[in-house]
DNA sequence: GAGCACTGC
């Protein structure tokens, strides 16, 4: 393995003595970078980490922000020889942006060109050189995809799963699979980087069962017992303040807290966590309308994903002298964005969270208390530049009693269809017996299997069907959308379904402008089709191409240019995947009926009928409404299918299309022809 | 009459 010591022979101290000569074997970086590296808290654990990785199959590293674990540990491993002999050190991240920035940073520290010894892979972008790349950063989703080609991930010697405490869908699947791989590849080392609160459960997960431990008590390999190592962070202390009494109106409390900070505290920016766009806009308005002396000198900026790129970038502009920046944000600032200069955090204690109800098969978004882990994460945002303060708009009792230690893993609040397909494509058919880091509810598994069966993705034995099931597994989209693409191919409109699949995979192609709602609606009418939103999207895409993909044209028509660029990119990827599956692009031209039949073949479970002025889902008579953003809003055709349902105060169908009821029986005869009989064949 | 956040060869 390593060139420096073997388990049981040399002690870590000896390695310590040797390491001076091996740092940066591949380059001669500047002195200052090396000095900076040495100042990171993780640096003094270098020997210890290398020793643990050498001797343990899995090492859990608890590292707080600023410990340097993400950038340094892969370098330590590289210096210690884990990338010798063409092997690669992998480090996964939940987000593309972190993959790119961390890879760039590490390449800089090593003094190499990004894409050579240090590379990265994210969707649409592979900056690695086989045989040259030693350290590879990638999203956990990409690593999962790589497993479809190489189930044992043989080219990697060490896989570091970073930010595992976030418990994203793909992180959890990855952890389950990595544990399985280690049974076949005892030489593979895992490093799981996690926040304190999750370390114990991670360790328990990677601890082998008693039976297996006795059987596999091989003296040669590393011990199966996971190691845990804590590395302190570099953040400054944050003083926490709680309310003495619960707030009756948290929005007004937030506003008065901001004004009090501005009034009484030394300079420093303020970051405020609220739940959503509505509350944020309201708070911004309250502050900007407050024309008293108290609010003068405040620069109030909203931050949420629905904002245009330009508006989001305002956040990063330097604060003018004599001004205090107040950023009022959703959860986006909790993990995805780092804001420098923040000294004060105001935390509402709530966020919007997605939950999935497997009984109704509906995902909804509800305002719920955040976890203690999230509250700490939010508070930590105040201590990045100097000691800060966090004002929690709830009582200490609420923190102790109402907030759970950590959030519910995404796996336990999601529709499982995509995860199940991924596992089945890797040959794991016993879904109920899979070693999940957080087992989903049996109802959710059963519901997902039922939907996959109806789509024809799995058969009576719950195995992937051929070719449909295997093809669906190849396409990085929801099974419903993938099925739509395959049906589109059979019906002669692959071009159209791929375009619409790309558009549906992004949040919205329209610019979000609250003030000029009327103009947006008028712009929409220029493309609106009587058949509904899907056909409208085809019109928009065609017109966008005719404009020569012009940003000015987008601006004039209230279309989000950045979104359209993503659509073109996604469409390109889907076209390449389709090509590999033997699907050539073919257009149905003006025949929207075959296109709508193809959509129906993927979305028949989302069929609705107008009954006495309201829509009811065909499957379970759930009352639903057409979302006001749909071109079919107030048009109310008799039969529709929808792409997704959002639950706020009502169930709203987003992206709605008219259908003929006979198409449903064509698409899913076993579901719709004998509705009265028992279709739940699973 | 209305939109938490991520992600995918």
Architecture overview:
The protein has 682 residues and is of the alpha/beta class. It has 3 domains: 33-207 and 222-231, P-loop containing nucleotide triphosphate hydrolases (Rossmann fold); 238-410, P-loop containing nucleotide triphosphate hydrolases (Rossmann fold, 3-Layer(aba) Sandwich), CATH 3.40.50.300; 475-667, no CATH class. It contains 27 helices and 21 strands. The strands form 4 sheets. Strands 4-3-5-2-6-7-1-8 form an 8-stranded mixed β-sheet, sandwiched between helices. It has a 6-stranded parallel β-sheet with strand order 9-16-13-10-12-11, with helices on both faces. Strands 17-18-19-21-20 form a 5-stranded mixed beta barrel. The protein is globular and about 70 Å long. It binds one DNA strand of 9 nucleotides through residues 94-96, 121-124, 126, 139-142, 144-146, 148-149, 166, 168-170, 275-278, 304-306, 330-332, 334-336, 351-354, 365, 367, 410, 418, 474-477, 505, 507-508, 512, 517, 573, 576-577, 580, 627-629, 633-634, 646, 648, 652, 654.
What is the average of the pLDDT values? 86
Distance from N terminus to C terminus (CA atoms, Å) equals: 48 Å
Write down the overall geometry.
globular
Q: What percentage of residues falls in helices of 4 or more residues?
A: 25-40%
- Poorly predicted spans: 1-29, 675-682
What is the total number of structural domains?
3
Based on helices, strands and strand pairing, what is the structural class? alpha/beta
Number of E strands: 21
Main sheet, how many strands, which sense, barrel? Answer: 8 strands, mixed
Give Rg in angstroms: 27 Å
Annotation field: number of helices: 27
Share in β-strands = 15-25%
Oligomer: single chain
Provide the spatial order of strands within the biggest beta sheet.
4-3-5-2-6-7-1-8
């Amino acid at each position: 393995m390593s060139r420096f010591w073997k388990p049981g022979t040399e002690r870590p101290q000896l390695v310590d003595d040797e390491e001076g000569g091996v740092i940066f074997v591949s380059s001669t970086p500047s002195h200052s970078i090396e000095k900076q590296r040495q100042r990171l808290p993780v640096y003094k654990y270098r020997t210890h980490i290398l020793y643990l990785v050498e001797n343990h199959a899995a090492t859990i590293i608890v590292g707080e922000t600023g410990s340097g674990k993400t950038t340094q540990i892969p370098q330590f491993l590289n210096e210690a020889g884990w990338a010798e002999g063409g092997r690669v050190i992998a480090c996964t991240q939940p987000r593309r942006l972190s993959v790119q920035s961390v890879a760039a940073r590490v390449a800089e520290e090593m003094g190499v060109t990004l894409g050579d010894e240090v590379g990265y892979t994210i969707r649409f972008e592979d900056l690695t050189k086989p045989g040259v790349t030693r350290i590879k950063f990638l999203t956990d989703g990409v690593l999962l995809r790589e497993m479809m080609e190489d189930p044992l991930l043989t080219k990697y010697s060490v896989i570091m799963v970073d930010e595992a405490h976030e418990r994203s869908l793909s992180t959890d699947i990855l952890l389950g699979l990595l544990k399985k791989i280690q049974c076949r590849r005892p030489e593979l080392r895992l490093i799981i980087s996690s926040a304190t609160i999750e370390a114990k459960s991670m360790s328990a997960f990677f601890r082998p069962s008693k039976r297996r431990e006795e059987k596999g008590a091989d003296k040669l390999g590393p011990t199966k017992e996971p190691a845990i190592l804590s590395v302190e962070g570099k953040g400054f202390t944050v003083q926490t303040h709680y309310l003495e009494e619960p707030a009756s109106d948290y929005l007004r409390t937030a506003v008065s807290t901001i004004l009090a900070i501005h009034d009484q505290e030394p300079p420093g920016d303020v970051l405020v966590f609220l739940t959503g766009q509505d509350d944020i806009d309201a708070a911004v308005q309250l502050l900007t309308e407050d024309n008293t002396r108290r609010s003068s000198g405040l620069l109030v900026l909203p931050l949420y994903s629905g904002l245009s790129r330009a508006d989001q970038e305002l956040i990063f502009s330097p604060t003018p002298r004599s001004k205090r920046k107040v950023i009022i944000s959703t959860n986006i600032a909790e993990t995805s964005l780092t804001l420098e200069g923040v000294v004060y955090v105001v935390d509402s204690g709530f966020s919007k969270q997605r939950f999935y109800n497997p009984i109704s098969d509906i995902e909804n978004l509800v305002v719920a208390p955040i976890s203690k882990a999230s509250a700490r994460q939010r508070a930590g945002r105040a201590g990045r530049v100097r000691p800060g303060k966090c004002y929690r708009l709830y009582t200490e009792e609420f923190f102790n009693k109402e907030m759970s230690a950590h959030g519910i893993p995404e796996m336990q609040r999601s529709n499982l269809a995509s995860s199940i397909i991924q596992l089945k494509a890797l040959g794991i058919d016993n879904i109920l017996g899979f070693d999940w880091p957080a087992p989903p509810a049996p109802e959710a598994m059963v519901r997902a299997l039922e939907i996959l069966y109806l789509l024809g993705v799995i058969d009576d034995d719950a195995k992937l069907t051929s070719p449909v099931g295997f093809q669906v597994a190849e396409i990085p989209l929801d099974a419903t959308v993938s099925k739509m693409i395959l049906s589109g191919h059979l019906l002669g409109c692959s071009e159209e379904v791929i375009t619409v699949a790309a558009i549906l995979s992004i949040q919205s192609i329209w610019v979000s402008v609250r003030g000029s709602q009327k103009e947006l609606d008028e712009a929409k009418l220029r493309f609106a089709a009587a058949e509904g939103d899907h056909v409208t999207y085809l019109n928009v895409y065609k017109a966008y191409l005719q404009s020569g993909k012009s940003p000015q044209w987008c601006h004039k028509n209230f279309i989000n240019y950045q979104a359209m660029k993503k659509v073109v990119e996604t469409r390109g990827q889907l076209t390449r995947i389709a090509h590999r599956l033997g699907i050539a692009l073919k257009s149905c031209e003006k025949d929207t009926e075959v296109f709508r039949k193809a959509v129906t073949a993927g979305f028949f479970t989302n069929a609705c009928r107008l009954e006495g002025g309201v829509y009811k889902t065909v499957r379970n008579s759930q009352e639903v409404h057409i979302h006001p953003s749909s071109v079919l809003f107030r048009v109310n055709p008799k039969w529709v299918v929808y792409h997704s349902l959002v639950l706020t105060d009502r169930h709203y169908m987003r992206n709605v299309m008219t259908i003929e009821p006979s198409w449903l029986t064509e698409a899913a005869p076993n579901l719709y022809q004998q509705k009265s009989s028992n279709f739940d064949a699973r």
